[in-house]
């Protein structure tokens, strides 16, 4: 199911720089004996907006979770903003502070207000004074168009509002890269658009983004590259026009015939 993107998109700041944001080379990962990611090679430049598509179980979530070390890879290299991900906790902390992540199920703290969700990490991890963290959080809550919900608890909000809080919470750490793992998959159809609109605005501001999503309207309108994964491998990647209109592999064709 895919939401058409109806509004004009401002591409003036969507520039892709020569600077490499993420470099993945011959990366392999196993869950026990199950070989989940196979020889992943991927270079992401600053300003790129990449959509990762593929059937359920193909390894999309595992790949993006490896990029901020929510999962550990066993072979090959992952370098984020010039920092290689190894077991060195200093590197992991550095990378996590540069990379924001938004999940399918929001993962907000239910016992904290919206504002507290947004200020927790800036205050305790970044050591930012509370007043300043709150001012920043309010700025981002305005950006995602829910400043009036700041003192409510997540359970009092709609799914679309909760996901926008999750995006605002990530932005409060001022990441240089944003990872999205099916951010609209748990939402009722009428709430998908408000979350996609927030993501489009981020793209328009030049954020480097990797999005696992089935929203092919978003992919067509916003992505500069679509990556198709199957069985733990990157099978095909292309610009959205050619990806959708001229898929090369049989697996991609089959996938597209099922979702479009
Ligand atoms: P996708 O996001 O494309 O649906 P995932 O990355 O979630 O795929 O999963 C890829 C494969 O790895 C699936 O077969 C899944 O069952 C398996 N898997 C995912 N997480 C774990 C885990 N923690 N332990 C063992 N197997 C896992
Ligand atoms: Mg997944």
TrEMBL record:
ABC transporter domain ranges (all copies): 22-256
Entry annotated with the keyword Nucleotide-binding: yes
Annotated PROSITE patterns: ABC_TRANSPORTER_1, ABC_TRANSPORTER_2
Transmembrane region(s): none
UniProt entry tagged with the keyword ATP-binding: yes
Gene Ontology MF term list: ABC-type amino acid transporter activity; ATP binding; ATP hydrolysis activity
Family annotation (InterPro entries): AAA+_ATPase, ABC_ATPase_HisP-typ, ABC_transporter-like_ATP-bd, ABC_transporter-like_CS, MetN_ABC_transporter-like, P-loop_NTPase
Keywords linked to the UniProt accession: ATP-binding, Nucleotide-binding, Transport
Similarity comment text for this entry: Belongs to the ABC transporter superfamily.
Protein name per UniProt: L-glutamine ABC transporter ATP-binding protein /L-glutamate ABC transporter ATP-binding protein /L-aspartate ABC transporter ATP-binding protein /L-asparagine ABC transporter ATP-binding protein
Organism of origin: Paracoccus alcaliphilus
Organism taxonomic ancestry: Bacteria, Pseudomonadati, Pseudomonadota, Alphaproteobacteria, Rhodobacterales
